[in-house]
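Exercise 3.2. Students should predict the tertiary structure of the chain below and write it as structure tokens, then compare their answer with the key that follows.

Predict this chain's 3D structure.
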Amino acid sequence: MPDITPEELQTFITACHQAARYDLLRYSSGNMSWRFREDRAAVTASSSWLGELTAEQVVICKLDDGTILNNKKPSIETKFHLGILRHRPDANVVLHFQSPYATAVACGNPADTNFDVIIEIPFYIGTPAWVDYHQPGSAELAEAVIDSLRDHDLALLRNHGMVTLGKDFPDTLQRAGFFELACQILLTQPRLSPLPLDQADHLRALAQQKKSSNI
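Answer key:
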């Protein structure tokens, strides 16, 4: 396979399998990308099941213009995957996922939902963005998702799912998993109390300090 080593290929496949094991996606829903070189990205193929992904279902792209290097059909959401990676040099992995509770929340309408019900949300994710519904694979959806993730680390796509990013696979999968947990709490606990605002702000400030110290 061009431009990717067998070890890099296996790293990507293993991470896709992990996303499915963590119940972040079902069947052919969801897709993942990885900047494995400065100018190269791996993307899951169209209609692939991440939990059963094979080497034949990994598409290699040029990051700058999206040129396909191994003659395979990538996910229809590749435009926003590559766009996010181009605009977020601090991120190397993008995951579009459809975990059950978070997707249920994305099908609702409360854009003012306070997700700070567990400490991991303000510390690892911050305030999520909301993206209005657009047709899957459309230029409008790609533009909206890319724009929303310029200054957020997770976005809810109305009636569609979520997109998050990270510096590596554990960082990205952890964000998705913690967000799913917060949504589960929101939907199953009728009398919940979010974190006090000052405490949530303190955690966000700590996270920003940590992020700045790693630059």
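Discussion points: The chain has one domain: 6-107+128-193. The two ends are 32 Å apart (CA to CA).
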